Structures are given as C-alpha cells and as structure tokens.
Automatic annotation (TrEMBL):
Family designation: Belongs to the acireductone dioxygenase (ARD) family.
Keyword Acyltransferase found: no
Lineage top rank: taxon: Eukaryota
Protein name stated in the entry: Acireductone dioxygenase
C-alpha cells in the first residue's frame, strides 16, 4: 500500500495508553473512552526505553548481550510473578502497585506472560504500558511508577541492573530525592510526550 509506514516491531510486544480513573480491578486494561494510545516515541520522551527481543533464545541472544554491554547491565536474575510461585503473593502485588520511584533504572525483560507497568507523565496522568513476551522496558531512575499483572495472572521476567542490585522503592511523595530532581531536569521540561493519539482520528 502506497504511503504506509512500516510498523515498529516493538508494538507487537509493547503497547501504551492513557488510563481511566476507575477503581475497578487493577488487572483490567483501564482504557479511556475513547481509547487514547501513547506511542513508543512518546514514552521515550518520558525516559522510558524499550526493545523487542527473542525471548526464546535469551541465553545466546547477541542483541541482548550488546544492550547489556552498552548500558552496563552486569547483573541479572529472574522473577516469576503468579499466585503459585510468589510467596506472600497478595501482599507483594499490593506493594508493587503502590506508586513509587527508584534511585536507579528499573529494567525488565518479559520472557513469558505479560504485565502492566504504569508510569506518570509530565501532567501527572497515568500511562499504562503493557509488556508481553519479548518486550524489554527500562524505566528511568526517578520516574513515579507501579506494576501489576494483567488478568492472565502470570509473568516471568529477567531483572537487570548495573552493579549490585538495589530494589528499594520510595513511595510517593519522595520529590526531595536527587534521583527525582535529576529525572525532572532530564525529562520534565517538555510537554511533547503528553499528547494522546485518539484511535478515532
């Protein structure tokens, strides 16, 4: 078809949209009406980076190796989140969904299943990022975010880190932390990432 832009392959494993204000089950999609999608380029303007990789060959994947070398991700481990595998599941899921930030990047590579990473934009609106098998996402230090499973109730993820891992969450508000101030200096000056894409357009 003439003039058709080639689809970004990441969109098959990563999708993002503005969330509604409903208090329904956190594992539901929570689309606005009409749906308002957010592009991966808009996410990048918030500091959220993403890749599509081959989750079936993560042990030998040269692309993953290259990303790790370029970004200094020396540490990896694996985490399965589901009622059968995670001790104190209900408490952990509740903690994950508490709005917080970290003083380092949060890097997750989905090897199986799927889940939602919610991030705040510059206008303090929630953007829901759905990460599926093969999707890798980096949340910058200092961004307010939270995590939940979707209705399939399962994700297996690789966790990556620069050096020794520090998973400490700082629940909102923690605006005084240097990581938060640095995030706002780096990514908080533009409103360009906040325009929604109306699917009816």
């Amino acid at each position: 078809m003439v003039g058709t832009l080639e689809k970004d392959p990441r969109e098959e494993v990563l999708q993002a949209w503005y969330m509604d204000d409903s208090n329904e089950d956190q594992r539901l999609p929570h689309h606005r009406e009409p749906k308002q999608f957010v592009s991966l380029e808009q996410l990048a303007k918030l500091g959220v980076l993403s890749w599509r990789l081959d989750a079936d060959k993560y042990e030998t994947d040269e692309e993953l190796k290259k990303i790790r070398e370029e970004r200094g991700y020396s540490y990896i481990d694996f985490c399965e989140v589901c009622p059968e595998k995670l001790p104190n599941y209900e408490e952990k899921i509740k903690n994950f969904f508490e709005e917080h930030l970290h003083t380092d990047e949060e890097i997750r590579y989905c090897l199986a299943g799927s889940g939602y990473f919610d991030v705040r934009n510059h206008n303090d609106e929630w953007i829901r990022v759905w990460v599926k098998k093969g999707g890798m996402i980096v949340l910058p230090a200092g961004i307010y975010h939270r995590f939940t499973l979707d209705t399939d109730n399962y994700i297996k993820a690789m966790r990556l880190f620069v050096g020794d891992p520090i998973w400490t969450p700082f629940n909102r508000p923690h605006d005084h932390l240097p990581a938060r101030k640095e995030y706002l200096q780096s990514f908080g000056t533009t409103q360009a990432g906040d325009h929604a894409v109306d699917t009816a357009a």
